[in-house]
Amino acid sequence: MAKHLFGFWLLFGLAVFAACGGPLAPVDATRPQAPAVAPQVLVVTLSGKLGTLELARCTRALREAATHGVRFVVFRLQDAGSQGEDLDDVQSLLDRVQASAIETVALVQGRTTQGAAQLAVCTDRLYFLGNGVLGEITKHEGELDELLAADPDSAMAQRFDGMREALRGRLERRKQKLRPEAEKLVLAMADPRTQLFEATVREGGFERTRLLDTNELTALQGSGATVIAPEKMTRPAEVRAQGAEQYGLSNGTLQSVEQLAEVLTVDRDAMAELVVDWAEHMVGWLELLQPFLLVAGFVLILFEVKTPGVGLPGLLGTAFLALAMFYSYLVGLAEVTEILVFFLGLAAIAVEIFLLPGTVVFGAVGFLCLVLALVLSQQSFVMPQNAIEEDILLHNLTNVTLLFVMVLVLGFATWRILPKVPWFNRVFLPPPQPQPAAGGHSGLGMPNERLTALVGRTGKAATVLRPTGTMEVDGEPYDVVTEGEFVEPGTPLRVLYVQGNRVVVAAEAAGRAGERGSVGVVVLLVIVGLVLIVAEVFFVSFGVIALLAGAALFGAVFVAFQESTSFGVTMVAVEAVAAPLVLAMAFKLLPRTPFGRQLILAGPATPGSAGAADPGLQALLHKTGVTLSALRPAGFARIDGKKVDVVTRGEMVPADAEIVVVEVTGNRVVVAHR
User: Fold this and answer.
1) d(Cα 542, Cα 549) in Å, to the nearest integer?
2) What is the CATH number of the domain that holds 56?
């Protein structure tokens, strides 16, 4: 049986490992053959509704980019976005995009709305391709729950206010801040109550086109400024390539995808797109099955507790729970930390049930770990920062509560009904017998004096004791129970004491006198020591937490040697392996997760702009020159007597035109037409 279990978990682990990454297999964004150079730009093409498959692809692209040193992740939005998208999933993708160290770029092609429009305005750079349109972010019709509310208008206004607040917070987190008019335009896409006007305003003898809301327009007209032909924009607002560039929302308009390589100053052959793997195809049906997998997994584990040995229910239950958490990992809601916390909670509950029943501590810690992992695996934040995140947290807590209610109901039904089914009554462990009735009998069909006479007598386990079962004394069977430990059939037993109809026994080899309960104490000390190691990494304690961790781990070894030499040596080996692994995880894994980023303070921002890789380029700032070729928007220019690769901010400049250098970032020389 153990061999089969090992084979199953080995295959399952290999499958999960293959799904979680593997070698990058890019395909050129414009040609079917693989690129000849290492990819520097990873393109993710999104069309239609942003479902779980698209979100999983975006998440995997960001992970692969970080793993393989890719410089840019480009989201190519082809008529992307639709009503009915899952708000939780979209928000988690936006959190991951804005937290990524990889520079992200959005390329709007066709009409882009809803979640795709949010993604576009939250990236580091935004370009339009051809006649792209960026439209509504929020559905302007009322939701069903809003229409059924006592005050539908107030409920709808609350939704719009929450979206504006959340979107304003995301715009503040952008690495490249938007101009005020661009921010105003984005917020009008999310709030259809905002009416914007495009108007030419004449003040102090100067005319310029401005974007005004109703209050600003009224104030200007009242101040005596001349407002020429104010034109209403649609509600919610939408913008095309020319307007987005004019108001500073986009970084430029491109004529083709190939031109993106010139703008990003990379080799065209270094643009690649991920090959969709089988794990992403799993996402669709895993999304539908996740509630069933969680409920069925917990119920099967409860079924395993009531059956002897390690069998199929426990195996399937663990596999179901692993698949449910794997879905959250694929779509970017959960990281390895949440998955480890989830299974740590299961392990703590197992310790409470099998090793240290009645201690309560392990059960409570395990339950809290399960709740924490289940909630965090459905959201990308730890604590809510706005109304939308508060709604998501409340929704997830409700789902977790319903999950545990369903598990308890189904578990209770399983325990009450299945033992009465002919085949299952032989699989389930028998429950403890009822307490003796008043009088001289125990309720087992024999006098209390006869049961009391069993104290101190020895026999053998006739069935597995988990912890109840049957023991034979001088050839006669008796229903007995241990104090929590499991005993295999044939093990010598001794009757410790009798309480009513409850005959309590212990393995003869262990002996009551030598029993110290040291196994549970050792396990508890090891867990406390490892947790303190993690705490030492994140909290300043001047070595106090480290000393406590060392004391707990050395205490566990000391208690283990008091039990037996072999047990002590085993614990030394376990701690020698576990302590460095936990320390490495604390330093390398946790700081990269949402939970770890909440604990660790970010380093101070580096003042000033980044220096160019070529020190000579920095000296070209604010100098003038002449274009040697047409800039569309990239090309060549002669500046200070040197031929330099340059790029504009999106405008097209003819050859032999005078230009000025306005920005130098890395090897990127940005010029403008004089």
Assistant:
1) 13
2) 3.90.226.10
Indicate whether 220 belongs to any domain: yes
Segment holding 119, helix H or strand E? helix 114-122
**For residue 425, what are its two tokens?**
């009554």
Q: Which of 518, 524, 521 is nearest to 564 (CA)?
A: 518
Q: How far apart are CA 521 and CA 534, in angstroms?
A: 20
171 and 33 assigned to the same domain: yes
Whether residue 129 is found in the same domain as residue 206: no
Task: For residues 55 and 160, state if they share a domain.
Answer: yes
- CB-CB neighbours of 600 under 10 Å: 12
Q: Cα(first)–Cα(last) distance of the chain, in Å?
A: 80
Contact 181, 211 (CB under 8 A): yes
- Which residue segment(s) compose the domain that 530 sits in? 518-599
Residue 611 confidence (pLDDT) above 50: no
At residue 29, what are phi and psi to the nearest 5 degrees? Answer: -70, -20
pLDDT digits (tens, 9 = 90+) for 430-439: 554 444 444 4
Residue 412 lies in a domain: yes
Residues 101 and 69: beta-carbon distance below 8 Å: no
In sequence order, what are the residues at sequence separation of 6 or more whose Cβ sits closer than 8 angstroms to the Cβ of residue 412? none
Say if residue 25's pLDDT is above 50. no
Q: Do 183 and 168 have their domain in common? A: yes
